[in-house]
Amino acid sequence: MPRLTLKQRKDGRYVCAYKDMRFYGLTQAEAIDKRERYIDDIKRGLREQAGTRPVADYAAEWMGTYKAHVTRKTYNAYLGYINTILAECGDKRVQDVTTSDIQRIYNRRKDNGGDSIKKQAMITKSLFESAQADGLILRNPCIKAKRPAGYEGTHRSIEQWERDIIHQMARTNHRLASAVMVMLYAGLRRGEMLAINIDRDVDFDARTITVREAVRYEHNRPIICDPKSEAGKRVVPMPDILADVLRDKHGLIVCTHEGKHMTLGVFVSTWRSYLYHCAVTLNGGKRKRWLDRTKADKLKHAQGAKSDAWREFSIRTHDLRHSYCTMLYEADIDLKSAQKWMGHADEKMILKIYAHLTEKHEQKAAEKLHHALANIQIGIQHND
User: Fold this and answer.
1) What is the pTM of this model?
2) At what angle do helices 114-133 and 99-107 cross, to 10 degrees?
3) Could you count the other beta carbons within 10 Å of the beta carbon of residue 169?
4) 318-365 pLDDT, tens per residue?
5) What is the span of the domain harbouring residue 190?
6) Which domain-ending residue is among 280, 304, 319?
7) Is residue 199 exposed (0-12), middle (13-18) or buried (19+ Cβ within 10 Å)?
8) d(CA 269, CA 167)
């Protein structure tokens, strides 16, 4: 036990010093132990001033050093993950962060999708790996932390009735009618679709669409850039149903009235308009504002019948791409071709989607088997 030579503060804690550092503990032994561990860390190679640096300060430097080359959109996404770290331990010194702190950081995203949790873990681990390389810590506190599984991705394949509505919309003059068909039947990402110029990129003789570039947004402004990866530059087969929609059209698939690329705000409002017109089609041509106000509705009320409820139409642009991948699977397209046409850099994503679809098909097959066996059992009981 240490000698009782340390000064006790008014808050009951003991304090001891080393150079310009102060170490506190509820007991003299605890304060002295902290000082000795600090001195030992310095002897083992930690930078002497490392203990004074908060996580928030180091994270700001790390973002400026390691993420300065990424796009603004990606930078902002990384910043969201960094803010999750800072919310848990931003005021802590880098060397004081524990595995429990890291676990709490991961748990903050436990209700998110699996990909989001995976990215949070990747950013967190990279941050503290850099801190270790810079001599601020001896051990990465992320090593023993376990990230939650989260839920599987929220993207889905559209159902047949939704596809029927999209086909009906393709015969209208809505500004996004052709664009939606391109994302559904060529599997293009939204940004890739926005960059397609029919006169330049669509070959009706070869039945192909060439993806050369994409559109991304910075502060609402459209920026022409390369696709998501080098694999994003590709030639995609164009089925007849899509060729029939694009024939006799020119220029950008979707654009402003001046023929220019849409801003993000204009695209979002146009997408909402498309979904609303799909809902109108779904509801037999009746607009939502006329619900319960037509003569037919009033007659139903007079006869004691209930009015038909408004049916919403809700899909996302990436659901169309997911549906395209599902079509490739159901058409028995091999992995290499699917990877190429989807524009993935490797097979991981395709394998994940194909494996998920295989599991769903097996579940349906098992349900059919159980149903068939149940009918056999009923037949046997009746014969008895």
Assistant:
1) 0.61
2) 150
3) 21
4) 899 989 988 888 888 888 898 899 998 777 777 777 776 676 666 666
5) 160-319
6) 319
7) exposed
8) 21
